[in-house]
Amino acid sequence: MKIFRMLGRDIRDAFHSVVRNFSLSLASITCIIITLFIVSISIMLSAIVNNFANNVKKDMTILAFLDVDVEEERIKEIKTEIEKLGNIASISFDSKEKIAKQIIEESPTFKDILSGYTDEDNPLQNTYLVKVKNVEKIGETAKKIEGILNVESVQYGAGMVEQLLDVFETIRVVSLFVVGALIIVTIFLISNTIKITIFSRRKEIEIMRLVGASNINIKIPFLFEGVFLGLFGSILPVLATIYGYTYLYNRLGGFISIKTIELIKPSPFIYYVALLLIGIAIIVGSLGSYKAVKKHLKI
Amino acid sequence: MELIEINNVTKRFKTGTIALNDVSLKIAKGEFVFIIGHTGCGKSTLVKIIYREEKPTSGEVFVGGVNVAKIRNRKVYKIRRKMGVVFQDFKLLEKLTVYENVAFALEIFGLKSNEIHTKVLKALELVGLKGKAKNYPDQLSGGEKQRVAIARAIVNGPKLLICDEPTGNLDEETSMEIMDVLKDVNALGTTIIMVTHDTIIVEKMKKRVIELEEGKIKKDYAKGKYKRENI
Ligand SMILES: Nc1ncnc2c1ncn2[C@@H]1O[C@H](COP(=O)(O)OP(=O)(O)OP(=O)(O)O)[C@@H](O)[C@H]1O
Ligand SMILES: [Mg+2]
User: Fold this and answer.
1) Cβ A210–B104 below 8 Å, yes or no?
2) Nearest-CA residue for atom 16 of ligand 1
């Protein structure tokens, strides 16, 4: 096939060019490596934190404490009222007697304190444990529950998770900016590398034009060169991602048995990340070479 | 049949220089035409307009029936593939052998390597350089370099060969050898337009001669009519 023979020639030329201008190519490649490392680390961190947050959220429960003197009848009514609010996954009830029993089992000190009360007048509160369907709206739902008559107060594991996610959101935005800036720098570096190649091959380009090479014939080797630079730069980050994460997973997996901080399984996660890195490398490489070709190869 | 028809072509550069001023001429298929004139009279500009390196400011330039003045830049390669161009400075790639320099164009077109092989050897044979296919340009004399350039220009069998001072860097004897090669190429049916300062050669060759002066055609000598002025 004609087109494949031509592509073969173009790829060979692009490859030679990268090897020839190695010092300049090296700068571009280094920049890509750094960029991709940051991208890889941000993605993995973000995935790990999201996974963690989801696990925590899944277990999140609203505790609705009822007034101490609330009647048996009313307790049942409150349950139906909560159910009517929507976004409710399940409701369970801890009576003050049950809570007292639990406390007594856990701590002998409380046993002494609580033994002074009878079941009827113990100062603990009857409690509904409510799980919601949509964790994002847990705050809203908690507020509604609090509005119900005879619900004294509510509590849910708000603070910690939200704070963690907030901090992480900031980190994500910052790393997004850093990656953006690095990508721009990389595009400039690649474009410069290719500019040099274009200048060093002026004569060849002139002759190509004379003997009837089409614009595409002339431009394609330079576009390939950018893609090559990108691909070279992606080798290390891709390997580091695949092996680094697998190592981390195997290493930590042994120690961490708590479900909430469980890591994401390496496969297929790392392969998606690797594909993404290669994709970014190719796009950045072609953008850089496209910029150089557009500016310095006006035909 | 005319291969080239130029009608009322004017070329004014951005600097204001008028390099060609209302030039009209016709060149038939198979002709051998010299273009002469003092330096700066517009010879190179005239041929550049034919191989569409420059666009005329006004006028028409038909090459093989196509008005190349109207061709868009990115389509220029299509007409370049139908003509060959040779220069005073050879324009060979130093890192490629003679064979590779000639094969260069065909590789770009994506020909099969056995096709390329046949064509390149044929072209090298025509210019008398078959024995030096593996040499690099710096292992060749000026005349031999120019033969390589001619081989590259004709390897694809073009209808038209344009030479802008092909003997400008060569001594008289070598120049005549190059002229012999061009004669052979012309004998195979390729139309040749050659720009030159060398009026001795022009007189010897007894071909049609177009003399330019300040961007206009001063005189169009028919075959064998040109005589050098006695100074
Ligand atoms: N790209 C350009 N921009 C501006 N002026 C130009 C350009 N190319 C040529 N000229 C001018 O146009 C005129 C004709 O130039 P041209 O190169 O055609 O001359 P020539 O006859 O080939 O001369 P020579 O024998 O020295 O090669 C000259 O005055 C030259 O300075
Ligand atoms: Mg000239």
Assistant:
1) no
2) B42
CATH 3.30.70.3040 in chain A, residue ranges: 61-156
According to DSSP, residue A150 is labeled T
Site from B50, B68, B77 to mutate, A interface, most A CB atoms within 10 angstroms: B77
Question: B136: pLDDT confidence band, cut at 50, 70 and 90?
Answer: very high
Q: Which two tokens stand for residue A159?
A: 């603070």
For residue B17, give the amino acid letter.
T
Which residues fall within 8 angstroms of residue A212, CB to CB, at 6 or more apart? B77, B78, B80, B81, B82, B105, B108, B109, B156
Q: What is the pLDDT of residue A2?
A: 63
Note the pLDDT of residue A221: 87
Specify the CATH architecture of the domain A61-156: 2-Layer Sandwich (3.30)
Residue B6's DSSP bridge partners are B25, B61
In this prediction the ipTM stands at 0.87
Distance CA A15, CA B192 (A): 39
* Length in residues, chain B: 231
Interatomic CA distance for residues A108 and A102, integer angstroms: 11
Question: Each residue of B43-95: pLDDT tens digit?
Answer: 999 999 999 999 999 999 999 999 999 999 889 999 999 999 999 999 999 88
Q: Are the CB atoms for A270 and A56 separated by under 8 Å?
A: no
* Dihedral sign, Cα of residue B115, residue B117, residue B122, residue B123: positive
The pocket around ligand 1, CB under 6 angstroms, is made up of: B 13, 15, 17, 19, 37, 39-45
Rounded CA gap, A64 and A155, in Å?
Answer: 7
Nearest to A9 among B81, B91, B107 (CB): B107
Residue B134 reports pLDDT greater than 80: yes
- DSSP string over A6-34: HHHHHHHHHHHHHHHTHHHHHHHHHHHHH
Q: Looking at beta carbons, which residues of chain A come within 8 Å of B74? A: 214-215, 299
Which residue, among A250, A229, A183, A197, has the nearest Cα to A29 in the 3D structure?
Answer: A229
Domain segments of chain B: what residues? 1-82+159-224, 92-157
Cα gap B189→B159, rounded to integer Å? 8
Look at the block and give the residue holding tokens 């164009």: B105
Topology annotation, domain B1-82+159-224 = Rossmann fold (3.40.50)
Determine contact, residues A46/A106, Cβ cutoff 8 Å: no
Nearest to A211 among B78, B105, B112 (CB): B105
SS3 content of chain A, % helix, strand, coil (to 5): 75, 10, 15
